[in-house]
Amino acid sequence: MDSKIEYPRQTKTIGWRGILFALSVFLLSISDLSAGVLVAPTSVILTETKRTGRLTVQNPTDKPKEVTIHFSFGVPLSDSLGDVKISLQDSAITDPRSAVDWIKAFPRKMVLAPNSSQVVRFVARPPRDLPDGEYWARVVIRSQEGETSIPAASDQEKITTRLNMIMQTAIALKYRTGNLISKLEVVSTETKLVDSAVSILIDMVNRGNVSYIGLLQCRLVDAKGKIISKGQVDLAVYRDLKRRIVLPVAGENLQKPYKVEVAIATEGRTDIAAEDLIAGNSIEYSALVE
Amino acid sequence: MSFRQGTNTIARLLLCIFVAVIIGTSSFVKAQDIATGSATATILAVLAVSATHDLVFGDVLQGVPKTADKTLVADAGVFQITGAGGKEISMHFQLPDYLWNSTNEDRLVIAFSGTDADIDTTAAGTPAVHGAGAIVDQDPHNLTDTSIGATDNILQIFLGGTVYPTVDQRADAYAADIILTVAYTGN
């Protein structure tokens, strides 16, 4: 199923969402955050009719933090084993889907006082005649101690060291324009029984013009249809991606051959607001375990 | 005790509990600054990266390599990533090859081996005693993408390393940056 979304769209304020957000911030604030900053939300969506956005950076510690904001380009990429990495590219970006050059942030440098927060705003100034689809950047929030000191040697003939621990959080920023199509295709599926686990490697290709954001669910069943184990992973396919899921084989009286039931859909994501998700096609199939 | 007295007692008790909760959760009140300002945020998840302990080599002697052990609480660099439990993250270290002295005239070699990082997805885990399911002996140059612990909503990285001073290394204070970049892989 392809989907098309027309802008402008209404942004709803849901009370429960605020409550859940406050709860999540509370849970994080009581954890040990003796250094570092907290960033929310974890992705920013801009559109041709809503070209500005914001995120909040909070310093929950009792020390000042030096924070800088810059943009990089990076999408989830996988290796042949299905391990996913996001490599950030700061310069010489030639990808036609990059929004790095025309997204601006304000402010870009700040010193956050203890227990304070700062709203960072974004504005998109895309080139004219931008083809329909989605354009990507990563907002990199870099934080380090506002005051650093190098420890003095206990003896003047000795050597002392200081390693500054710098933290960077990379947040997805997407700019959407025109007709948006979310469509995924599964190219191949490999299943393999190794010791007491089944490894499933799924090769996918994005056939739409937006990133396919959804959920990949796998169930391992025996010949009688008994569910042996199941697992799921959040899916973000920007171009092509291999994902590996390992399901344990545990239980008694299991009959071979085993089968893996795979379901991929854009529904089921609880961490992303419904209005930010582009509904796409669903895929369901099964594969015998070799 | 009459019905009215009983009601007053319960009301006082509730008031005391209310006051105690307010005082005891001052951090919640602070957090609400953000919560109020972001009530219209469209995404609930948050992500926080922090360094709770520096990588410490202590005093170093000329010509004597010194290792900061990732399994020693006093030595290990500790990074904590807090966010949505069960969500997978990509982690990337930018590690230095040298530390430079205060005048940038002399440098001290630093190296990280292919087993200098451990990953722990529990809050109780320490460099010395990891939690259940810890992933040990990881290459800090190429960390495996891992899910944030579903129970404690946390992931910790314990980092070690070694410095190699030359025999004529200048006695001075040397510094460098270690940069950890974290991103969710699912959005």
Question: What is this structure, in a nutshell?
Answer:
With 290 residues, chain A is mostly beta strands. Chain A has one helix spanning 15-29; strands spanning 37-40, 43-47, 52-59, 65-72, 76-78, 84-86, 103-106, 109-112, 116-124, 133-145, 160-177, 184-194, 197-206, 212-221, 227-237, 240-248, 259-265, 283-288.
Q: What is the β-strand count of chain A? A: 18
The helix-and-strand class of chain A reads mainly beta
Number of helices of chain A: 1
The poorly predicted ranges of chain B are 18-44
In the CATH scheme, what's the topology name of the largest domain in chain B?
Immunoglobulin-like
Q: Indicate the radius of gyration of chain A in whole angstroms.
A: 23 Å
Biggest sheet architecture of chain A:
5 strands, mixed
Task: Give the helix/strand layout.
The complex is a heterodimer of chains A (290) and B (187).
Chain A: H1 15-29, E1 37-40, E2 43-47, E3 52-59, E4 65-72, E5 76-78, E6 84-86, E7 103-106, E8 109-112, E9 116-124, E10 133-145, E11 160-177, E12 184-194, E13 197-206, E14 212-221, E15 227-237, E16 240-248, E17 259-265, E18 283-288
Parallel strand pairs in A: 2-11
Antiparallel strand pairs in A: 1-3, 3-9, 4-8, 4-10, 5-6, 7-9, 10-11, 12-13, 13-16, 14-15, 14-17, 17-18
Chain B: H1 3-24, H2 26-37, E1 47-53, E2 66-68, E3 77-82, E4 88-94, E5 98-101, E6 107-111, E7 117-120, E8 135-138, E9 146-147, E10 154-159, E11 161-164, E12 173-184
Antiparallel strand pairs in B: 1-3, 2-11, 3-10, 4-9, 4-12, 5-6, 5-12, 6-11, 7-8, 7-10
